[in-house]
Amino acid sequence: MRVIFFYAFFSFLNDLASLYLPRYVFFKDISTDSLLIALFTLVEFSVFGIIYYSILLKRTSKRIFLGLIIVYITFFLYYFLRTLLSSESLETFNSHTLTLSAIILIISSIIYLFEQIQKQEVVFIYSQYEFWIVIGIMIYFSGTFFLFLQYYELSPNEQSNFWIINLICNILKNISLFIACYLSLSNQVNSKNRLFTENNSTLENNYTTNPFQ
Hints:
The protein is mainly α and 213 residues long. 82% of the residues lie in helices and 2% in strands. Helix 2 (32-55) runs antiparallel to helix 3 (59-85), helix 4 (90-118) runs antiparallel to helix 5 (129-150) and helix 5 packs antiparallel against helix 6.
């Protein structure tokens, strides 16, 4: 869960920077705003990538996911370099990478859920914090996929209207991540309490069996 806390902290810092840093255009329409968006996109995908790699169970699934990560990094670097060497703006680059990251994370979410269905253990999946992380990511990127895909083809008025979709999906994602954090902390506390109770029971049994030791 440290990765989730890091993601929340980085998101907070990124939002502060976008609000209070002066807007400076470097060259070819590359500004501080566009750089912050590109940086957030890369960090967000990296954080979610670490999470998915850790929760996927099968070795085949992990290999597929690593292959998708390589595709994303290659795509990211290609568009970044192409933006620097051409007259395109960084916003166009960001739209492409957001769309690709959405596809990869949606596929990874489906793989995770499919693995959970195949498990032989009888466990309520909604009691696991990993499930809520995946649901939050899946809701956000599924809901905003077509928005990111066509965002820069829309007029400014249409962009403002459609951006409400991003806001709603982001709120739902954050709620799911909050539930995941709560379940993780709750499971840790219950595990410590269970261990403490077991240790006390063992000590009591030892004392009852051998009271003079």
